[in-house]
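Q: What structure does this chain adopt?
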Amino acid sequence: MPVHNGDIEGPHRGGVLMIPGRRRRAGAVTAALVLLVTGCGGSRPADVPERPVQGNVLDAAEILTPGEEKDLDALIERRNSTTGAARVAVLTVDGAGGSIEDYARAVATAWQVGDEGADNGVLLVADTGERELRIETADGVREAFSDDDAEDVVEDVLEPAFADEDYARGLTEAVDQVYLYAEGSEPEEEPFDWVLFAWVGGGIALLLSAVIGWIVADSRRRRRRADEELRAAEESDPDLRLTEEQRDAYRKYRYSTRGSDAVSNPALWLPLYVANPALYSGGTAGHSSGSSMNGGGGFSGGGASGSY
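A:
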């Protein structure tokens, strides 16, 4: 049948008249609009929240009671006052959006978790909206607290606790284990049951006496070792003259820092102490508030993620 002037010429496909070029352009425009509206097919990452005005815990998802949040922050402050091996912060959020690894790294970097120059920061992130978990570690802490260790904490502590909605216990145990690993120790596979000793008063008294005795003996032993190191360093280098304050700071440093990376030569320790007294004194100078956010950085992707 001949085509009249009022008809549109064009190829047919499956019985449908196709208009070359025009339909392809319309399809491209439609696809572009869809991508624009949907954000290129992916979810938009949530904004990085402001770090806590006080403390080291931001419970944006509101899964902790005020008392639980206070106790968790007190644990972090207490551990920060006794060790420089790690600085831990905690964030809960209801929907991080996108990759939780990218989000955790952005938050840890923006919050400056860790001590400046030490790269010892660790950020725990719990996304209750997506039911995802992340431990983000800075480069300096990964030698003692490896990615495998972080994965164990996520799988053995955080995931089961969050699956049971026991959020405070999961975060508390996870924070405690991070510090243990960072200090060169490991958590006990089966926690000691102190309740049993409540029935035996004499046993408790004996145990406390033994612990106190060990602490006193350990303190004296480590002080003697530090004094021997000071004496040996001054004998080998007559120009090395430490003030009494510096000698005391070195003793505290050697008592609190016990890992294989501890500096055991006072001559090498002194310039590090002068540059960063808070990190190389073993005390709480510069960290009286117990803050974990002290200009840290070095977050290049270490840690582990999980879901529940």
